[in-house]
Amino acid sequence: LSIQIPSVAVETGAFEFGPTISQRITMEDGNIIMPYATLSGIWTFKQKNTATTFSSQSGLAEEGVRARVESGFYIHAENGLSLSVSGHYDGIGDDGFEAYGGKAKISREF
Questions:
Q1: Average pLDDT, stretch 81-86?
Q2: Between the CA of residue 32 and those of 16, 54, 74, 76, 95, what are the distances in Å?
Q3: Measured between alpha carbons, how far is 90 from 103 in angstroms, rounded to an integer?
Q4: Which is it for strands 81-92 and 99-108: parallel, antiparallel or unpaired?
């Protein structure tokens, strides 16, 4: 077909740091609830993405420092059933980048 497909290079260098604060609460029935919050600083020291040259999509976060917050909870029942739910927001301090998301997990011990 003689269609030339350009090469793409993606390189990222990042360093993430920060505390997580949590509290384990044991209920009278033996179930455990653990809420938590995390504040992370993210230093992106290398960013290369040539794919954005060929598309109209925005690129990854630029080099620099930004913050990310995450909050959630973990529940573990005595019957072995566990549930964890969390959400995050990324891009604090960086006007050109914003990301958010969440996750949920259910598991069972055997």
A1: 98
A2: 29, 51, 8, 5, 39
A3: 15
A4: antiparallel
